[in-house]
Design a protein that fits this description.
alpha/beta; single chain; 7-stranded mixed beta sheet
């Protein structure tokens, strides 16, 4: 059974998609053992508690330096010793120490078709704003392994989503979540749990 920790910052829609997929059996041999957030007000924490999953808040605001926060997060993850760490809308750059401690055991969902609209500064609505500004006809989402760069790790899965006339960043964001993110994140976890990767 794959021990999964999910790191979140906001509403937790990708977390919900993963929990639903585990509950309905489309993700096999995996269980979420803990949900960790940098944001004490993240609705994702409520979603986890409602499913009986243990939660923890580790906020940079509670530490005097980013280094202390990084160490606290690293120590928490070491204590859990997960087989897989899933970044599901986690708005914190994962420090090199954590990447080195868990090589090829951290995955991220990014709301574009990497290498488009990724890297430093591309997160949340900014990704969709950039896609619309550029005028692309197709966007999508990518699940990738996390390495020491930003959105540079090996790609696991991608799914394309049509950009439609009249799309706003918010409308496009929702379509990318519904048609791509919520599908390929559980699929990637299932592939890892099944030893396909």
């Amino acid at each position: 059974m794959l021990k999964v920790v999910v790191l979140v910052s906001g509403g937790g829609t990708n977390l919900k998609a993963l929990m639903d997929a585990i509950d309905d059996g489309s993700v096999k041999n995996a269980r979420i053992v803990k949900v960790i957030s940098n944001n004490p007000n993240a609705y994702a924490l409520e979603r986890a508690k409602d499913r009986g999953i243990e939660t923890r808040v580790i906020s940079p605001k509670d530490f005097e330096s980013r280094g202390e926060f990084n160490n606290a997060l690293l120590n928490e993850l070491k204590d859990i010793a997960p087989d897989l760490i899933v970044l599901a809308g986690f708005m914190v750059v994962i420090p090199k120490e954590i990447v080195r401690e868990f090589p090829m055991k951290i995955i991220n969902i990014h709301p574009s078709l990497i290498p488009s609209f990724c890297g430093k500064g591309y997160y949340g609505l900014k990704v969709h704003e950039a896609a619309l500004e550029r005028g692309v006809k197709v966007t999508g989402a990518t699940v990738h392994y996390v390495d020491e760069g930003t959105d540079t790790g090996p790609i696991i899965l991608q799914k394309a989503v049509e950009v439609r006339a009249g799309d706003t960043p918010q409308v496009l964001q929702r379509r990318v979540m519904e048609e791509a993110e919520w599908k390929i994140l559980p699929l990637a976890v299932n592939m890892i749990a099944g030893g396909e990767l």
